[in-house]
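Chapter review: from sequence to fold.
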Amino acid sequence: MFIKGKRISRDKKVEVINPFNDQVIETLGMSESADVNEAVAIAKKGFDILKKMPAGERSKILEKTAHIITSRKDDFSRSIALESGKTINEARGEVDRAANTMRLSAIAAMKLAGETVRFDLAGQSKKIGFFVRVPLGIVLAVTPFNFPLNLSCHKIGPAVAAGNSVIHKPATKTPVSGMLLAEALIEAGLPIEGISVLVGPGRTIGMMLIKNPIVKKISFTGSLEVGEIITANCGMKRVTMELGSNSAVIACADAPLGLVAKKVRKGGYTLAGQVCISIQRVYIEERVADDFLAMLTEEVKQINYGDQLLSQTEMGPMIDTGALEKAELFCNDAVQKGGKIITGGKREGNIFTPTIIYDVPENALVIQEEAFAPIVAVNKFSGIEEAIQKVNNTKYGLQAGVFTRDITRALKCAREIDAGGVLINEMPTFRVDNMPYGGTKGSGIGREGPDFAIREMTEEKLIILDQI
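The token string follows.
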């Protein structure tokens, strides 16, 4: 863990494991109850410092942090790959994105502003007024294993930009990136009270932080189930919840099917499918279904999987045994309900082979739930109304993709698909870090992207002046 600008050891340890070969790559001290209380007390002091710090100075700290991340790209990339199992090329891409997220946060710090308020709408008034945006206090950032650096930046960057202090609770399986980020922030000039990193189980360390009344904001990325537990226990706090999904693609007969197949190859199997907006369902117009399935199968069979540190590897391991067992469960359930495994569907060591399941009943787990695995279900549709209904027939609604050359059909999907983002002629796995990102229904509350997250981490303070 990381408190007052340095790493702290404890008798109890957290072993960080390489998901590919189960080897220990690092050992960190596990946080205790007393550490939670200390971190909160420190963060309270940090807030008193940061809320008074000029926005320009906070911006410079974030900009310098971005520079440090870029200058240490190899170290960050290797750490991400080793602890999360994503390929070294995926990890390098994440480092680039993380640096950009911090730069966007630096810009957001400079743009943060209020507005004037009119008081003469109902008649003459001598009053003038305006509101300013002020920081909330202590922000708790709870981050997942799959993007251990960039999703940390998406929470910590806007929090600091707004003048809040931060307590970071990274996933216990991937805490190294969070430690490296905290060290970069301190080196860049953030006061040592401005950030602490606590390492330990969510059910103990995390729950203490969630229930603590001094913590004013929780920004969480993870599963719907855990998100529901957090909101049931956090009390009167601001929350941003980036939760699960089973993102769908609609591919119409007029779409370039070869391009769609390549997009699904990338969007369904990046990080072994362990991405919230990973493509999990494809609805293909029935008159081209056989052709598309053949194209997609050829693409997926070419995926080179294995050791994530090798440059030629396209897909690495799953995070742990539980994830592998869940993938097996989803495949078995789909087959039992009548689906057909076209390719994959099995374990090879800690790899789950890239999988396509065809003609899956809509009540199957892989259609209704989040697989978080390299599994894509392909089903047919006859009309666009049917496709939209099937996309919406789930408790999730994060992002969806639609491929068609028909602008009328595209706009109909954009209007009627119930999701936080509808992407026309692009896969739902697409994300850039300045866009508003978040979902509807069980996929979450609030939006990320520094310009949008900073709104969630501040509140309006109204000031009125009258003549006397």
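Two observations follow directly from the output. Residues 88-111 form the longest helix (24 residues). Residues 248-433 form a domain with the Aldehyde Dehydrogenase; Chain A, domain 2 fold (CATH 3.40.309.10).
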